[in-house]
């Protein structure tokens, strides 16, 4: 079988480094799974996902002379798209229902923010001015 970019092949993990894992492919070729291509999540240590001697199915990303770039995460089927019923985790770790398409444009959101901000500043000024004795009340000697 001829190996070409985009094909899915099987190989055996022969060595793991801090930047990825080397995989022995058919016909004695060796390819590298870069740490960024190991999983869909942040990978701090490749050993958390792979061990030497593991048999893996990988996607050939590119072939440049003797260098073969492989991807473990691209070889996996994509998870189904959110249909609006599933919950997803945001950056803070909170789970929330995904929002649909943007209902307001950036300009609408900006004008709402400016209006809210102006109202808050007005309220703050009103509260602090009364504690200072009102507007322009300066003592003159």
Give the ordered list of helices and strands: EEEEEEEH
Q: If you consult CATH, what is the topology of one domain?
A: OB fold (Dihydrolipoamide Acetyltransferase, E2P)
What share of the residues lie within helices? 10-25%
Contiguous low-pLDDT stretches (5 residues minimum) are: none
Number of helices: 1
Keywords for this entry:
single chain; 141 residues; alpha+beta; OB fold (Dihydrolipoamide Acetyltransferase, E2P); five-stranded mixed β-barrel; two-stranded antiparallel ribbon; 1 helix; 7 strands; 19% helix
Helix and strand arrangement:
Blueprint: E1 8-17, E2 20-24, E3 30-34, E4 55-64, E5 67-71, E6 88-89, E7 95-96, H1 106-132
Parallel strand pairs: 3-5
Antiparallel strand pairs: 1-2, 1-4, 2-3, 4-5, 6-7
3D structure, described in words:
- This protein has a domain of 64 residues: Beta Barrel (OB fold (Dihydrolipoamide Acetyltransferase, E2P)).
- It is elongated, with a radius of gyration of 29 Å.
- The protein has one helix and seven strands.
- By secondary structure, the protein is α+β, with helices and mostly antiparallel strands.
- Helix content is 19%, strand content 28%.
- Strands 1-2-3-5-4 form a five-stranded mixed barrel. The chain has a two-stranded antiparallel sheet with strand order 6-7.
- A hairpin with a 5-residue loop joins strand 2 and strand 3.
């Amino acid at each position: 079988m001829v190996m070409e970019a985009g094909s899915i092949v099987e190989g055996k993990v022969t060595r793991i480094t801090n930047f990825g894992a080397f995989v022995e492919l058919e016909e004695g070729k060796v390819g590298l799974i870069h740490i960024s291509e190991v999983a869909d999540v942040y990978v701090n240590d490749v050993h958390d996902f792979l061990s030497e001697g593991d048999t893996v199915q990988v996607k050939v990303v590119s072939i440049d002379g003797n260098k073969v770039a492989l991807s473990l995460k691209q070889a996996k089927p994509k998870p189904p798209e959110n249909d609006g019923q599933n919950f997803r985790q945001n950056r803070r770790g909170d789970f929330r229902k995904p929002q649909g398409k943007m209902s307001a444009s950036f300009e609408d959101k900006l004008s709402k923010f400016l209006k809210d901000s102006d109202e808050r500043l007005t309220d703050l000024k009103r509260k602090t001015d009364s504690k200072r004795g009102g507007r322009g009340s300066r003592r003159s000697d």
